[in-house]
Amino acid sequence: MAGIGKTKLVSGWLAARSTEVNLTGTQLTTTNPPSKGPRSPWIDAEVPGTVLGTLVKNKVVPDPFYGLENETIIDIAHSGREYYTFWFFTTFQSELSGSQHLDLNFRAVNYSAEVYINGHKKVLPKGMFRRHSLDVTDIVHPEGQNLLAVLVHPPDHPGSIPSQGGQGGDHEIGKDVATQYVEGWDWIAPIRDRNTGIWDEVSIYVTGPVKIIDPHLVSTFFDNYKRVYLHATTELINRSAWVVDCSLNIQVTTELEGNMCLV
Amino acid sequence: EHLQTQRVSIPAESRVQYTFPQSANWQLFFYKPNLWWPNGMGKQSLYNVVITVDVKGYGESDSWGHLFGFRKIESHIDSATGGRLFKINGEPIFIRGGNWILSDGLLRLSKKRYSADIKFHADMNFNMIRCWGGGLAERPEFYYYCDLYGLLVWQEFWITGDVDGRGDPVSNPDGPLDHDLFMLCARDTVKLLRNHPSLALWVGGNEQIPPEDINTALKNDLKLHPLFQNVLNENGDSATGFS
Q1: Range B116-138 burial, b when 16+ CB lie within 10 A, else e
Q2: Is residue B230 within 8 Å of B238, Cβ to Cβ?
Q3: Which of A116, A192, A235, B240 could serve as A73's disulfide partner, Cβ 3.0–4.6 Å?
Q4: Residue A199's Cα: distance from chain center in Å?
């Protein structure tokens, strides 16, 4: 039985340009998992990171922050969105007991994505600044390896950069909910992929039947800060098919020096 | 230092919201806890808060933890200067702040980078960082180091004057195309970051007021919860607070 909690998926990611992959997500995560090789379009990926970060890491393009190298990298306005639509692939293990649930979490993706796990497809809707949580309990293999492929699409409105540059290029990026500086500003040249990618952490999260969601902690103060109360509100979700009786515990501790804890 | 347990029953396949305390007898009370102070005003005291849920017949089902700082942040617009004045834990503070966009333009973000960036600001004797609307809603790791080093954070949402209605020529006068998406992202971002003691101020955008429906929704969502809307008397005691 897996222990509860979070495991980040930080290593072993591969990436490939979508136009160079002739397989579907279902095939990639069942019969035809990718591998690197001299004729393979797959390279080591930056996750969390961006498409351009991956290309720089693999020296496919030069680092845009040095000299005039950014001018040598094709802008998404000229290449089209498909050129910077990328597959990302990895594997992970899971060993769940009967009552456990597994969530696959993306803390942020720019800008939308299709997720394939062991042949099953799920969609991550648009928005650069939102968390995504997929209940994959019924999809993962009870023991052994799971195959995960993510097709990441750039912002819907990457815009184009006027010859004179300016704050935010032609401002098309403002139509989306994403960072705006990526069309260039008075302090930075345009980011050629508009920061497309899995730009924040990916993790798997194991819980029992009940999950804690987004607690909120608030303190109130009285008597010149001598009398203080901590208020905590949380959402709880019961994903089992029966009523559950729970003990909900809140504990506050301080950390003394030398990794000692006062409870 | 403080442990409290309450019993909860949750229907099958459902979601509930639960608040500690449920009554005056079940309050998490602290007598003169160490307060969290911004850089230069005192120590950044932090407490570990852990919430766990144990299911009868199963065991521990989930656990959540967060570093928490006891602090009160107040601000108002000064009628003489038009500037915003801040008080922390009742003490006025002179804000020494810096503008911030990101740690790396290609989003090569890491704890190591954030630690260096934020500590640098603290070493420069800053006590506030302002996250510009054309950049990111910063990540929890950024806020962790701001909690640790005492940098208050002014976080803007993703609206700028240049791109959203005040540029030349004017573009996107009504902001992003999908206002519901903007609000979904804003609400999720607030939930992601709201427990950090360094988070001091939400601002609708840079040099621009968000579209009216977004602005109204943000102001409504971020207003003080009615539970905490107590009138304070001269001694700072709540007129209708806990006894």
Answers
A1: ebbeebbeeebbbbbbbbbbbbb
A2: yes
A3: A192
A4: 6
Nearest to A252 among B28, B133, B235 (CB): B28
Q: Which of B17, B136, B189 sits opposite A235 (nearest CB)?
A: B17
A6 in contact with B, Cβ within 8 Å? no
Distances (CA, A) of A11 to A27, A118, A218, A232: 22, 19, 36, 35
A119 phi-psi bin (left φ>0, alpha ψ -120 to 50, beta other): left
Task: Give the C-alpha separation, A220 to A225, whole Å.
Answer: 9
pLDDT digit string, tens, across residues B194-230: 999 999 999 999 999 999 999 999 999 999 888 777 6
One-character DSSP codes across B18-53: EEE-SSTTS-EEEESPPBB--TTTS-B--EEEEEEE
Six token digits for residue A28: 């990639």
pLDDT at A31: 96
Q: Chain A 218-257, CB below 8 Å of chain B: which residues?
A: 218-255
Q: What pLDDT does residue B233 have?
A: 39
Choose among A201, A197, A194: nearest CA to A132.
Answer: A201
Residue B1: the pLDDT is 59
The three-point CA angle B133-B135-B141 to 5° equals: 115
Q: Can you tell me the distance from the alpha carbon of A67 to that of A54, in angstroms, rounded to the nearest whole number?
A: 20
Query: What is the overall mean pLDDT for chain A?
Result: 94
Confidence category of residue B235, pLDDT binned at 50, 70, 90:
very low
What DSSP assignment string belongs to B60-115?
EEEEEEEEE-B--EEEEE-TTT-PEEEEETTEEE---EEEE--S-TT----HHHHH
